[in-house]
Amino acid sequence: MSEAAAIVSDKQLGDVLLLQPSAHHLAQVAGNSTALFVRDAFRPLVELMPGCVWGPENRQRFSEVWTTSWSSRAVWQAFRLRTRKRRLIVNKPRHIRWWYRFVFHDIRLEPPSAEYWARYFWRVVSGKEETEFIAPQLKQPPADWKHPALPVGPFILINPTAAWKRKFWGEDQWAEIIQRLVKQHPSMPVVIAGGGSEREVAHCQSIADLCSLPVLNLAGKTSLKEYLHLVSAAQSVLCIDGAASHLAQAFGIPTVTVFGPTHEGKWHWPTPHNVALAARQFNEAGAYGSASAVPVEAMWAAVCSLKMA
């Protein structure tokens, strides 16, 4: 049996998905699916990533191990794996601790830029021309991952939260968009989803209350399997910078994403069906800032341009 490659990361859900192009390349080279060693909770995501398998159950010797996180935890995880080639990708010299050189056979220092992170890792791992890059992709989730409350027919998904509160768009802005959507498509259900933290649940509930319409609020009420199915089944997704944006694009769902304090070029791959609205486009001198700087009219124009309304 031929060996497989492995990737180690201790990043968040969306960051793990952005490794799919790199993992797919390694799988093609090795002739076996790439083993991913990531947080235990993310196993359902790995199961949907082409070219990937769940790493912790794989006890074999790996042809090569790539570590895309530079935390001590990720480095020790990589050190425990049997391989002839252990490699680390870092974007700043300060991420390299002195003892890392005793762990890795190869440390790739690639300076940061405004490059899309999925292509950044793929380019370093594959060494291929940038024009050959294909954005992350996901397989469709099984039908039994569906949340029991999910509508049977088409629906619009609103995902207004992320791990960072400073990425949030205004509650009143979301409420206005929902009202316009319902007016345009009175028979199209609107579903709200978000993380389970107290802050995210409260934000989603405030939006539902402000729009004064019968929306289905599933914020904090889905497992990861149910959440993945939810995103994959949506007619369209409106969200802020976060995992929902990455997932929707990987599932091929038309998406509009609002960006505030982060650079959209690093976290968004533009296509005719995936549009980014950045606060810096509306701030003086292109300054970063609150996502609320993106006006409702700009969001609505983007929604209409995708024929989502």
TrEMBL record:
Protein name per Swiss-Prot or TrEMBL:
ADP-heptose:LPS heptosyltransferase
Report whether tRNA processing shows up as a keyword of the record: no
Lineage here is: Bacteria, Pseudomonadati, Verrucomicrobiota, Verrucomicrobiia, Verrucomicrobiales
Q: Which keywords accompany this UniProt record?
A: Glycosyltransferase, Transferase
The protein's matches in InterPro entries, at most eight in alphabetical order, are given as: Glyco_trans_9, LPS_LOS_Heptosyltrfase
One Pfam annotation, family name?
Glyco_transf_9
> Does the UniProt entry include the keyword Lipid biosynthesis?
no
Species in which this protein is naturally found: Prosthecobacter algae
